[in-house]
Amino acid sequence: MKKTTAFLSLALAVALLSGCESARKAFSGDKTAPDEFAVYSRPPLSLPPDYKLRPPAPGTVRPQVNSAKYR
């Protein structure tokens, strides 16, 4: 019984003290700022393989003309 109580007390103390450390970091004025001189390389942008528009069919009405009627 004494070993169990001692173990639980020790475990509780460790949990509470670790919480104090994170609370101290959260409420302290010592904030770690990001490095403004760090350059992060990113992969280059690329176009999708099928990035073509279909040509309009001859004789069809333009979509801009029809859209004003339905507003």
How would you portray this structure in words?
The protein contains two helices and no strands. The chain has helices at residues 2-27, 63-69. It is elongated and about 95 Å long. By secondary structure, the chain is mainly α.
Quick structural gist:
The protein has 71 residues and is mainly alpha-helical. It is built from 2 helices and no strands. 46% of the residues lie in helices and 0% in strands.
Strand count: 0
Helical content class: 40-55%
Largest sheet composition: none
| N-to-C order of helices and strands | HH
Tally of alpha and pi helices: 2
Structural class by secondary-structure content? mainly alpha
Report the sheet-strand fraction.
under 5%
Tell me the span between the first and last alpha carbons.
Answer: 79 Å
User: If you average the pLDDT, what whole number results?
Assistant: 75
Q: Can you tell me the overall shape?
A: elongated
User: Spans of 5+ residues with little confidence (pLDDT < 50)?
Assistant: none
Give the radius of gyration.
Answer: 32 Å
Topology, please?
Blueprint lengths: L1 H26 L35 H7 L2
